[in-house]
Backbone:
């Protein structure tokens, strides 16, 4: 028996994730950052800042990330096509709307939410009640206290929509696993200067703090963090991290509970 198409799509997303991690590693291995020394402010203070010299946007990373996102979103649509009645399969899309989308239209509600309520009613009309209950649990919350798991559904949906119209805006958001070395006039090398926490990440253009005024050289080593421009929970959308989390969530919390209701 051939593999279900929604599982094949998820498997392809996993393959692209391997390629994405390799591309991110290749970018990191080019050491695409340096320390810039500047004179800033009215007091003409010497300041050292992290400066990325090359952008991941100029690599294959945005295209590979888009392949991951496409197959993740497509796996859900293929799953939905397998859930609905055969006559509806040509237009089936996995619903990713908002918590309470199944409730009555609220007076004064904006047109987008009204459209999504109507789409929900159309999408689930041939599904068994048990499958509808699962889909309700998966709808992302509207509040600031979003469930970080169901937020992954909204994230992939948003990125998929964006990729239809433009190349994903990928950037180097910072540097983690920092090691900073400061060379003093007498040749002594100080390590660990300017690090607030071993787990801290230094963002692009951020100042490296607490460097002695008489330092003659400042060097930094670390692991570049690659992200898609935009924020999730106040943080950049780090890749491949968030996409790996999305794949695991889709497999374990979306496909697994819904697959018993797939029509033969």
Residues:
């Amino acid at each position: 028996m051939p593999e279900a198409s929604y599982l094949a799509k998820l498997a392809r997303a996993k393959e692209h994730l391997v390629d994405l991690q390799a591309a991110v590693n290749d970018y990191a291995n080019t050491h695409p950052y340096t320390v810039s020394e500047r004179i800033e402010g009215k007091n003409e203070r010497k300041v050292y800042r992290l400066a990325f010299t090359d952008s991941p946007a100029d690599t294959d990373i945005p295209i590979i990330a888009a392949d991951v996102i496409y197959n993740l979103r497509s796996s859900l649509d293929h799953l939905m096509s397998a859930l609905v009645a055969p006559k509806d399969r040509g237009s089936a899309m996995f619903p990713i709307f908002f918590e309470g989308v199944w409730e009555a239209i609220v007076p004064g509600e904006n047109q987008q939410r009204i459209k999504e309520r109507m789409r929900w009613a159309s999408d689930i009309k041939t599904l068994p009640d048990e499958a509808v209950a699962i889909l309700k649990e998966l709808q992302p919350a509207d509040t600031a206290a979003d469930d970080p798991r169901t937020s992954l559904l909204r994230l992939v949906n948003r990125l998929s929509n964006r990729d239809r119209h433009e190349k994903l805006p990928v950037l180097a958001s910072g540097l983690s696993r920092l090691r900073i070395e400061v060379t003093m006039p007498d040749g002594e090398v100080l390590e660990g200067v300017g690090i607030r926490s071993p787990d801290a990440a230094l963002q692009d253009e951020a100042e490296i703090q607490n460097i002695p005024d008489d330092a003659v050289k400042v060097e930094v080593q670390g692991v570049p963090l690659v992200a898609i421009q935009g924020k999730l929970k106040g943080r950049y959308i780090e890749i491949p991290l968030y996409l790996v989390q999305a794949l695991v969530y889709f497999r374990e919390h979306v496909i697994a509970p819904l697959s018993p209701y797939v029509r033969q």
Remarks:
- The chain has one domain: 5-258.
- The longest helix spans residues 5-28.
- The radius of gyration is 24 Å.
- Residues 5-258 form one domain.
